[in-house]
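Most newcomers find our protein records easier to grasp once they have seen one. There is nothing in a record beyond a sequence line and a structure line. Getting from the letters to the tokens is the skill we practise here. An example says more than a description, so a record of this kind follows:
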Amino acid sequence: MVLNVLGARLPGAQFLDLCAGTGAMGLEALSRGAAHVTFVERDPAALASLRENLERLQLRERARVVAGDVEAALHRLRESGARFDALFLDPPYESDLARRCIEMLAQGDLLRDNAVLIVQAFHKRPLPTHTGVLHQQWRRRYGESSLALYIGERPCS
């Protein structure tokens, strides 16, 4: 359901799966035509499962796995010049990581023009509606979770 929101944006996309866990969202993105997925995860057990899934599905050449803290990974990705068309963020609900990552991504240097960010978060966690280049298009509640869709918009020059 989450990736249905991306529709025609997914084929050929550079996709970033933050707090990836075992990689279900990024693997689904690859199955729907994403050109490449970068997975970021810190949990060793989840990383082992993610790497095993990539090998088993023969998708290793279309993926990059970044192990470690998501905020540090965003800094490293920025320094490497990586840029993404579509991003998914599903941080632990008990943290304020969703807001912090949105604010980091809102600087725009990891986003291609008209990039799309989908954030899954605890429904009671406040999320910015507009910060930097990111503008929240909608937020919907699903049980204890919410999904928010952000579009990266560059200012006209």
Summary: Helices lie at 24-31, 44-56, 70-80, 97-105. The CA atoms of residues 52 and 58 lie 10 Å apart. Strands lie at 14-18, 36-41, 63-67, 84-89, 111-122, 130-131, 134-142, 145-152.
